[in-house]
Amino acid sequence: MKNTRIILPLVLLLAIFGNGQTTGIIPQPLQVVAEEGKYTITPSTIIIADSANKENADYLQELLKVEHQKELKIKRRGGKGIILNHNPQLTQKLGEEGYTLMVDNSSISISAGTTTGVFYGIMSLRQLLGIDNVNKKEKLSIAGISIEDSPRFKWRAFMLDEGRYFKGTEQVKKLLDEMALLKMNVFHWHLTDDQGWRLEIKKYPKLTQLGSTRSNSQIGGWDSEERSNTPHSGYYTQEQVKEIIAYAKERQITIIPEIEMPGHASAAIAAYPWLGTIGELKAVPTVFGKLPDSFNVSDPRVYEFLENVLKEVMELFPSNIIHIGGDEVKFDSWKSSEEIQNYMNKNGLASPADLHVFFTNRISNYLNKNGHRMMGWNEILGENVHEWQDASDMEVKENLAQNTLVHFWKGNLDLVSKAVQDGYEIVNSHHEYSYLDYSFKSIPLEKAYSFDPIPEGLAESFQHKIIGSGCQMWGEWIPEAIDMDRMIFPRIAAYAEVGWTSKTRKDYGVFRSNLDRLLSRWRSQGISLPAKFEKVNFEE
Ligand code: ACM
C-alpha cells in the first residue's frame, strides 16, 4: 500500500508530455497527456459532427481522402468514430480558439467552444496522423492521447508583399494551406507599393491598367545598377480576391489588406499624377528603396480618392481592420510644396511628422465612421525611427487616434512600452526577428524561434496590449515563388510557435525535432527549402 502512493503519481507524471518532450505537433500544444490504447481509422470509421461543425466535417473528410486515401462518411449524431463536438461552455476555459482532442480505443473526439477551435483540433489531429506523404501505412492508427490547447496570442500573422512582385492565386493558396496547418490566423496582404498596385479598384481603373505594370526591375540589391530588362505586371480582380477570401475563411484565416499611404504610393501616383505632391511620375518606378513622392495630403481630391478606394476595400474584405501602411514617408516633397506648407499652417501643424499623424487620423476617422479600425506601421505614432529622418521634422503635437492598432517593426523597444502605456494595442513584428526577407545568416531558425512579442521588462499589467506578432515576407529581391519559399520555410513554423505556444512550453530542441515531419511534408510537396534543410537528418 505504501508504495502505490509513490508509484501512481510517478506513472501519471511520466504520461504527461512535459517540457522537453516531443508530440509531433507544431505549434506545441499547451497540455498533452499520453493515454492508454490507440485508435485505428478504417474505411468504416464515421465522422460524427453536430450541425455547427458541418464545414469542419467536410474539411476533415477531404483531408483524410487527399492525405490518407480514406473515404469516410459523415453523420450528424450517434455512434463512435471521429467526433466533432461544439460545446460553447468550453469557450470560458479555452477561449475562442482553444480545443480538446482525445484519442482512446473507441474514438477520436475533438471539442471546442467555437468552430475555429474544432478546426484547430483537426489541424493537430492531422499532424498526429502524419502529414508528410511518405512512409504511408495501410493502417492509420494513433496512440491514445489527451490534448488541451489554446493560443498565447490572438494575432498570428504572415505578411506577403505582392506590391513588389505579383505572385498570384496559386502561391497565395499554398501559403494559406501551410498557415492553416500551423494555426496561423491572419494573412496580412501587402497589395500596393511604389512598384505596383495589385488590387482592382473599379472606380479607378488606371490603378491596375497602369499601376500594376513596370517596364523593368532593379536586381542585385539596393544600390545596384543592374536591371532585369523584362517588364513585370500582375494584379487581382475583385472576383479573384473574393475566391481567395473564401479559401482563407475555410481555413479560419482573416485577410487584412494593406493599402499604403501616404508614402510607398508611387504606383498609384504614376496612374493618377494629381495624387502626388511632386506628381511628375510618368510610369511605375523600376527601382526599389524609399522613393521621394507621397500623396498630396493637402488636396481634397486625394482624400476623396483614398476614401473611395477604402470604401471598395471595406466592401470587398470581411475584416474590420484595414492596414494603411504609413511607414517610411520621405518628407522632402512635403517640405518643398507650398500647398502642403499652407495646409500645415492652416491646421496649426508643427512639422511634417505632425502632418503625417494628422493625415493618418483623418483616415482613421473615415474608417471608424464606416465601422472599421485602422492599423499602421509604427511610424504613424510620429516617433523618429529612421536614421535618415531629420530630427527637426519630427515635432509632433497631434495624438494618434486611440483605437489604432499599431504595427511595431522598427525602433527602440521602449517605443512599444510607451505605446501600450498610452493605450494602444500592438502587433509586434520587430524586423530584427521577424523579417523573412532577411537571410538565414541574420535570422537563423533558432533566432526566429526565440522571438518574444512581449518585450522584456514590460509590466504585466500592459502585456495584454500586445495582441500578437507577424512575420513578413518582403518581396523586392525575390521575383520567383521558388526563391520566396526558400526564405519562408521553415522559419514560418518557428513564427507559428512564437504566436501560439505558451512561454512555458516553448523549447527549441522540442520544436526542432517536431519540425522533421514538416520538413518532410514540404520536401514531398516540392516546396523549396534552404540547402541545409533539403537534406534529411542534416546537422545544424
Ligand atoms: C517596413 O518594413 N517598411 C514596414
Q: Could you please describe the fold and organization of this structure?
A:
This protein has 540 residues and is an alpha/beta fold. It folds into two domains: 6-149, Chitobiase, domain 2, CATH 3.30.379.10; 155-507 and 520-531, TIM Barrel. The protein is 36% helix and 17% strand. The protein has 20 helices and 19 strands. It has an eight-stranded parallel beta sheet with strand order 14-9-8-19-18-17-16-15. Strand 17 (405-408), helix 13 and strand 18 form a beta-alpha-beta unit. Helix 5 (169-181) runs parallel beside helix 7. It is elongated. Residues 1-14 have low confidence and may be disordered.
Ordered list of secondary-structure elements with their pairings:
Elements lengths: L1 H14 L15 E11 L4 E4 L4 H15 L4 E3 L6 E5 L3 H5 L4 E5 L4 E5 L2 H15 L10 E10 L5 E7 L7 H13 L4 E5 L1 E2 L2 E2 L8 H4 L3 E2 L17 E2 L4 H13 L3 E5 L7 H6 L28 H17 L4 E3 L8 H4 L2 H9 L5 H18 L3 E5 L27 E4 L5 H8 L3 E4 L2 H4 L10 H6 L9 H4 L2 E8 L7 H8 L2 H10 L7 H17 L6 H4 L6
Parallel strand pairs: 2-3, 2-4, 4-6, 8-9, 8-19, 9-14, 15-16, 16-17, 17-18, 18-19
Antiparallel strand pairs: 1-7, 5-6, 5-7, 10-11, 12-13
Helix pairs in contact: 2-4, 5-7
The site of acetamide has 4 residues, from loops.
Largest sheet: 8 strands, parallel
CATH architecture verdict of the largest domain: Alpha-Beta Barrel
List ligands, each type once: acetamide
Q: How many structural domains are formed by the residues?
A: 2
Evaluate the radius of gyration: 25 Å
Shape designation: elongated
State the CATH superfamily name of the largest domain: Glycosidases
**Class inferred from helices and paired strands:** alpha/beta
Give the strand content.
15-25%
The CATH C-level class name of the largest domain: Alpha Beta
Classify the fold: give the CATH topology of the largest domain.
Answer: TIM Barrel
What would you call the quaternary organization?
Answer: single chain
Count, helices: 20
**Helical content class:** 25-40%
| Low-pLDDT residue spans | 1-14
Number of strands: 19
Mean pLDDT, rounded to whole units? Answer: 94
Q: Give the end-to-end Cα distance, rounded to a whole number of Å.
A: 49 Å
Sheet with most strands: strand arrangement: 14-9-8-19-18-17-16-15
